């Protein structure tokens, strides 16, 4: 159960067997069915979850009632509402499973205890946040400066497995286009 997350952790920090065992003791394993909510806006997010298997989406609902997909997360990714988790305040985001998932959760109190006992984990989580920030900035710049067909091409290149796992209407919402327009983009690109 921990082999995959241990490989992930070991890419960033070197840990002793005892440090890894302590980390494992703080994690909670859960199987979660497809179309389950891990978090709803208004709740307090008290977890960060590592995805062993499955696909998850993170989204919010805009003032017009439309779902805006911010992120699709798959195996070897972490998912949370970071602002809610770190500030221990109400979430603005929804986190929903798109497939049956196996997840490892760490709660706020356990993460703080982990940082105190094994400070190396602060480096791991800092590197994760840096990567998430870089991804967010890249997406923001792409949304502002690139056409929808170009954004779709970049999405496919960066996340090649997601289109087979996520319904087209959710990808369209992620790209900020209608499902019909995305269908036209896909048709045009397949003929090119």
What does this structure look like?
With 192 residues, the protein is an alpha+beta fold. It has a domain at 3-120: Sandwich (Jelly Rolls), CATH 2.60.120.10. 50% of the residues lie in helices and 20% in strands. It has 9 helices and 8 strands. The strands form 2 sheets. It has a 4-stranded antiparallel beta sheet with strand order 1-8-3-6. Strands 2-7-4-5 form a 4-stranded antiparallel beta sheet. A hairpin with a 5-residue loop joins strand 4 (56-61) and strand 5. Helix 8 (168-175) packs across helix 9. It is globular. 22% of the residues are buried. The mean pLDDT is 94.
User: Main beta sheet: strand number and arrangement?
Assistant: 4 strands, antiparallel
User: Over all CA atoms, what is the radius of gyration?
Assistant: 18 Å
DSSP helical segment count:
9
Count of strand segments = 8
Low-confidence stretches: none
- Give the overall shape: globular
Q: Approximately what portion of the residues adopt beta-strand conformation?
A: 15-25%
Question: What is the CA-CA span between the terminal residues?
Answer: 44 Å
Oligomerization state of this entry?
single chain
Looking at the overall shape, the CATH architecture of the domain at 3-120 is Sandwich
Helix content: 40-55%
The CATH class name of the domain at 3-120 reads Mainly Beta
CATH fold-type name of the domain at 3-120 = Jelly Rolls
